[in-house]
Design goal:
Elements (H helix, E strand, L loop, with lengths): L7 E4 L2 E7 L5 H4 L3 E7 L2 H31 L4 H6 L7 E3 L4 H13 L2 H8 L4 H24 L6 H10 L2 E3 L3 H26 L29 H11 L4 H17 L10 H15 L3 H20 L33 H7 L18 H14 L3 H5 L6 E2 L5 E4 L9 E4 L2 H5 L2 H10 L18 H16 L10 H12 L4 H8 L20 H8 L18
Parallel strand pairs: 4-5
Antiparallel strand pairs: 1-2, 2-3, 6-7, 7-8
Helix pairs in contact: 4-8, 6-8, 9-12, 10-12, 11-12, 14-19
Length: about 550
């Protein structure tokens, strides 16, 4: 295989293009380096890497040309000092959030010089002088904030602005508000210096750019990532289900329609909230639906942030509970476990899933009967059961199923089979499927659409059946079998850590020990002995034996 092009690298997850932005261009380019995933195909990666190299080189050259032109036009400190003294300063006539943030970050960034000074060595007299200065400054700042009287700090802020080439020309009230907004940063800086006096050389965290000096050349930023490119980058990261891609494209299309002027690079948390509120009001979305939409769009942003195409993810750490219990919007019903009467009805020969034989839908008789039985006695999710293959059912050391992929990492697990499933003939059903040469445990459970999973075929049929035919309330759905299993575990006094291991839930223990993550978890024998504590209060009919068609 030929050598890879420059700036193209192979990783365990595929190929990436990565180039460090020259230091002089970083402020204009917007990032320290440019990185993009190229997928796992060698030829496609090489081709795209060569194209990217040309495009990035062109962008670098354009930025250099802009900076050179600005320098030739008289931008810079020399040009600033060459102006008459009374015409040098740039007037500030309005206090803006950007001005406040820039001053605060400049004040905190200036503390870097203190670290360098300390490393040269500080004698006793210098140390005591600084200690006294910090004490008196802290008292002055605390008093100014407590009394709402920041006027003593007016000369300090004005001097700072003059040092950056600005002249503050605002009203007394505006200047007072500016001082009160900046004083907490001075207080924070004082706290940091006090910690350094105690030997903890901490550094401040800046939440934005520092106030630029008037003479500093500022080239326009390069155009940020577009919505289409953001989606494509997310698609290129790894293979995605067609339905997931369709959902992402629909949600982002909705976001763009409602916020037409917002770009991925400039989108804020407030705008994310605004869009979700709009979805709630226009589409009557529940908090759970809003969380699904926000989480999925946030995942698209997350990939771009990881690859440094974006600086922030406006959906990171979003509190979706704020949308809960909105009067007239949030639905009061939720998924509940089946009660005993409903289970008896569901698994009855006369009117339950056993009674539907030749009717089409739901993947056929065996899917309609065995998948709910497995849901009841394993607690597995619908998609986990529907994707099982004959090779995923093993008999040693005890009969069990292997769930190889799931909702989370904890979902990958081995679940023993309850003796009731074996008594009903599940292992014989699996043997018949193997002998028939089928790849899936459910040969007739197939979706005709890329947007719909095979499991959804059974799920939709099941929910229509229990709500329409059996007249059960909307609070029970297929997933209610999982809730029922959890309740049966609790009623059987199975320890929570074991029934969490059976269902693939994370432990809910508040205090954890490092040792909890050691080893492979509970043995199959232990899990099965606990599972057998579950006793059904009624008999389950035996399904018909499988007959290959």
């Amino acid at each position: 295989m030929p050598a890879l092009p420059t700036n193209c690298y192979r990783t365990p997850r595929g190929y990436i293009f990565r180039i460090v932005v020259p230091e002089a261009l970083r402020e204009s380019f917007g990032k320290r380096e440019f990185k993009k995933s190229l997928g796992s195909d060698y030829r496609a990666a090489v081709s795209e890497a060569r194209l990217l190299a040309v495009q990035i080189d062109r962008q670098f050259n354009e930025l250099r040309a802009i900076l050179e032109k600005q320098q030739a036009d008289g931008c810079g400190l020399d040009a600033f000092l060459a102006k008459p003294a009374d015409k040098r300063l740039k007037p500030i006539t309005k206090v803006t959030p950007e001005l406040i943030s820039g001053i605060k970050n400049f004040w905190l960034a200036s503390l870097e010089a203190d670290i360098a000074w300390r490393r040269t060595g500080v004698d006793d007299e210098e140390y005591e002088d600084l200690q006294e200065s910090l004490r008196s400054q802290r008292e002055a700042v605390d008093q100014a904030l407590a009394r709402g009287r920041p006027e003593p700090f007016k000369p300090i802020i004005r001097q700072l602005l003059v040092g950056r080439g600005y002249d503050l020309l605002v009203s007394a009230d505006e200047e007072r508000e500016l001082l009160l907004s900046v004083l907490p940063a001075i207080q924070q800086g004082n706290d940091i210096l006090q910690q350094r006096q105690s030997g903890r050389l901490v550094t401040p965290a800046l939440d934005g750019p520092v106030l630029p000096a008037v003479w500093e050349a500022s080239a326009p930023k390069m155009d940020g990532i577009s919505w289409d490119r953001l989606i494509q980058h997310w698609k290129d990261d790894r293979e995605r289900p067609a339905k997931t891609i369709n959902d992402v494209e629909r949600y982002i299309a909705s976001l763009r329609r409602y916020l037409p002027k917002v770009t991925p690079e400039r989108m804020t948390r407030a705008e994310a909230t605004e869009w979700l509120r709009r979805e709630r009001e226009i589409n009557s979305n529940s908090a759970k639906t809003l969380e699904k939409k926000g989480t999925l769009v946030g995942a698209v942003f997350s990939i771009a942030v990881k690859d440094e195409l974006l600086e922030k993810n406006p959906f990171a750490g979003f509190d979706y509970s704020r949308f809960a219990l909105k009067q007239g919007i949030e639905k009061t019903n939720r998924r509940l476990p089946f009660n005993e009467a409903q289970l008896r009805q569901l698994f009855s020969v006369e009117e339950g899933v056993y009674s539907i034989d030749k009717v089409a839908g739901g993947g056929g008789y065996y899917s309609r009967v065995w998948i709910p039985l497995l849901g009841l006695l394993t607690g597995a999710r619908l998609d986990e059961i529907a994707t099982l293959k004959p090779a995923d059912v093993l008999e040693a050391p005890v009969p069990h199923i292997v769930i190889r992929a799931g909702k989370t990492q904890s979902s990958v697990r081995e679940v023993p089979l309850h003796s009731k499933l074996i008594e009903l003939g599940f292992l014989k059903y699996v043997d018949a499927i193997r002998q028939g040469g089928y790849a899936s445990l459910w040969p007739r459970l197939r979706s005709n659409s890329e947007m719909v999973k095979d499991s959804e075929v059974l799920g939709r049929w099941f929910n229509r059946f229990i709500h329409g035919t059996l007249k059960m309330p909307s609070t029970v759905v297929f997933h209610s079998l999982r809730h029922t299993f959890k309740d049966m575990c609790r009623d059987a006094l199975i320890p929570s850590e074991i029934h969490h291991a059976l269902t693939g839930h994370l432990s809910d223990r508040e205090e954890k020990n490092v040792g909890d993550s050691y080893g492979t978890g509970f043995s199959l024998e232990t899990k099965r002995s606990q599972l057998e504590l579950i006793k059904l209060p009624f008999d389950l009919p035996r399904p018909k034996p499988f007959a290959a068609r």
